[in-house]
């Protein structure tokens, strides 16, 4: 048994017991075991993370999917690896993940921990462990009542980064906020060398349009989406850093998957959307930094399964359902772009909640370009959630056909109406707690096998 004090032993044991009870009796509560552990031993994370090679994944969008991709690649490479796959990315949830996997009787040898972490919690994690790699996927406006603007989010992340100058940073080079950081860490950048659309102008509602040094508007050699792309400031000369890993060609992009060239390697990605190309590119970059061969990365990325509401595919009787988590304008617009790739008719369910985990302020839906789907072949427009009337008004103003609107808050009645839809393909676009709650209902009815 490892030499640890009685307080730490008690902390770990009670956390393990709480995790077991939470999973098998309460069907949830992935943060609570960590809260119990921290009540007893405030520095327990330092003890339970000892020996792990930690990869921290943070940023606004794509954390859960990118974490899952990295985890699966490392598993494919026969590494010993753990992860917080339930998306419990706050400090207590991360503590719970490590305590759950802690063994009193053997030491960790070459074991990796791929950990998703909330942007505001990086500083708490960095107090107790030094990651091998920290990656930042992007920075978009998200839960303004909690984070404020994107510059505030960057400051929160850097408060953690400066505590671990030895950690390598793997950053999205197309994110202008992540260039020329005042840190001592070694930095590797990834990004796109080709546009997704032939357009070098950014949307009026893009998030970081002005130079972070001189406040002049950026110009772009190419734009991928929102404010991401090959940017430069015509006034002060600040520009995108050189890329170590880049998408050099897009062979195919469909509602189900994509095929791209990363550096000199053709990669098939079994999940759709430009944002999943970014996620796969990030996973590719980190895996290469850890010494994984291209062939292993390719084999894993072409067989990735969607995780926990992130383009998760399920069946409700004869309906093919795809659940897409949407939580801010940038991510929502990318989800709508995925819908727009469809050539055939489909239906869509829009679920909007305003609980704490969603953000109390739902005015952000007016920054989503719903107008772009007003001409698509959408047969039924289902609307649900605590703020379904706000969503219905937004969709009406966007030009969707109100005669096709079906508003229903009750999950049982909603599911029956989905079963009776004229469409075989149905997308569910849901904010976080709406996704969580509806998944719980679908799990109780047997439509989803694995709740967490």
UniProtKB/TrEMBL annotation:
Which keywords belong to this entry? ATP-binding, Cell shape, Cell wall biogenesis/degradation, Ligase, Metal-binding, Nucleotide-binding, Peptidoglycan synthesis, Zinc
- Where does the record place the Lipid II isoglutaminyl synthase (glutamine-hydrolyzing) subunit MurT C-terminal domain? 325-435
Q: Which residues bind Zn(2+)?
A: 211, 214, 233, 236
- Catalytic-site annotation from UniProt: 361
Q: In which pathway does it act?
A: Cell wall biogenesis; peptidoglycan biosynthesis
Q: What is this enzyme's class at the first EC digit?
A: ligase
The reaction(s) this protein catalyses = beta-D-GlcNAc-(1->4)-Mur2Ac(oyl-L-Ala-gamma-D-O-P-Glu-L-Lys-D-Ala-D-Ala)-di-trans,octa-cis-undecaprenyl diphosphate + NH4(+) = beta-D-GlcNAc-(1->4)-Mur2Ac(oyl-L-Ala-D-isoglutaminyl-L-Lys-D-Ala-D-Ala)-di-trans,octa-cis-undecaprenyl diphosphate + phosphate + H(+); beta-D-GlcNAc-(1->4)-Mur2Ac(oyl-L-Ala-gamma-D-Glu-L-Lys-D-Ala-D-Ala)-di-trans,octa-cis-undecaprenyl diphosphate + ATP = beta-D-GlcNAc-(1->4)-Mur2Ac(oyl-L-Ala-gamma-D-O-P-Glu-L-Lys-D-Ala-D-Ala)-di-trans,octa-cis-undecaprenyl diphosphate + ADP; beta-D-GlcNAc-(1->4)-Mur2Ac(oyl-L-Ala-gamma-D-Glu-L-Lys-D-Ala-D-Ala)-di-trans,octa-cis-undecaprenyl diphosphate + L-glutamine + ATP + H2O = beta-D-GlcNAc-(1->4)-Mur2Ac(oyl-L-Ala-D-isoglutaminyl-L-Lys-D-Ala-D-Ala)-di-trans,octa-cis-undecaprenyl diphosphate + L-glutamate + ADP + phosphate + H(+)
Task: Give the matching SUPFAM superfamilies.
Answer: MurD-like peptide ligases, catalytic domain
Top-level taxon of the source organism:
Bacteria
Q: State its role.
A: The lipid II isoglutaminyl synthase complex catalyzes the formation of alpha-D-isoglutamine in the cell wall lipid II stem peptide. The MurT subunit catalyzes the ATP-dependent amidation of D-glutamate residue of lipid II, converting it to an isoglutamine residue.
Question: What is the annotated quaternary arrangement, including any partners?
Answer: Forms a heterodimer with GatD.
- Family of this protein: Belongs to the MurCDEF family. MurT subfamily.
Q: What is this protein called?
A: Lipid II isoglutaminyl synthase (glutamine-hydrolyzing) subunit MurT
Q: Which organism is it from?
A: Clostridium gelidum
- The protein's gene is named murT
């Amino acid at each position: 048994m490892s030499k640890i004090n009685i307080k730490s032993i008690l902390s770990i044991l009670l956390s393990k017991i709480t995790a077991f009870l939470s999973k098998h009796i309460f069907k949830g509560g992935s943060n609570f075991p960590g809260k119990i552990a921290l009540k007893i031993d405030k520095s327990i994370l330092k003890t339970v993370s000892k020996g792990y090679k930690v990869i921290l994944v943070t940023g606004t969008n794509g954390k859960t999917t990118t974490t899952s991709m990295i985890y699966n690649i490392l598993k494919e490479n026969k590494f010993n690896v753990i992860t917080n796959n339930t998306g419990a990315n706050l400090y207590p949830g991360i503590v719970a993940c490590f305590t759950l996997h802690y063994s009193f009787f053997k030491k960790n040898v070459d074991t990796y921990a791929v950990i998703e972490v909330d942007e505001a919690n990086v500083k708490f994690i960095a107090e107790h462990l030094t990651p091998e790699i920290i990656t930042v996927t992007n920075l978009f406006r998200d839960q303004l009542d909690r984070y404020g603007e994107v510059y505030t989010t960057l400051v929160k992340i850097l408060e953690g980064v400066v505590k671990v100058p030895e950690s390598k940073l793997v950053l999205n080079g197309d994110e202008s906020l992540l260039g020329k950081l005042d840190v001592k860490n070694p930095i590797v950048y990834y990004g796109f060398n080709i546009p997704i659309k032939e357009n070098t102008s950014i949307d009026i509602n893009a998030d970081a349009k002005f130079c972070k040094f001189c406040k002049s508007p950026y110009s772009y050699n190419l734009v991928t989406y929102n404010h991401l792309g090959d940017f430069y400031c015509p006034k002060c000369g600040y520009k995108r850093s050189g890329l170590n890993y880049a998408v050099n060609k897009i062979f195919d992009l469909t509602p189900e998957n994509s095929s791209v060239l990363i550096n000199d390697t053709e990669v098939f990605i079994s999940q759709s959307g430009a944002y999943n190309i970014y996620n796969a590119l990030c996973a590719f970059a980190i895996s290469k930094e850890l010494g994984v061969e291209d062939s292993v990365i390719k084999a894993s990325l072409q067989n990735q399964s969607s995780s926990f509401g992130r383009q998760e595919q399920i069946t409700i009787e004869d309906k093919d359902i795809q659940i897409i988590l949407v939580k801010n304008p940038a991510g929502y617009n990318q989800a709508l772009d995925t819908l727009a790739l469809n050539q055939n008719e489909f239906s869509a369910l829009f679920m909007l909640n305003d609980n704490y985990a969603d953000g109390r302020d739902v005015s952000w839906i007016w920054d989503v370009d719903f107008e772009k789907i007003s001409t698509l072949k959408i047969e039924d427009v289902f609307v649900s959630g605590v703020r379904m009337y706000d969503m219905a008004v937004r969709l009406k103003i966007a030009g969707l056909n109100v005669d096709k609107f079906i508003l229903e808050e009750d999950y049982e009645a909603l599911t029956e109406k989905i079963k009776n839809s004229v469409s075989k393909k149905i997308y569910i676009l849901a904010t976080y707690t709406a996704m969580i709650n509806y998944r719980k209902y679908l799990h109780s009815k047997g439509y989803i096998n694995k709740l967490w």
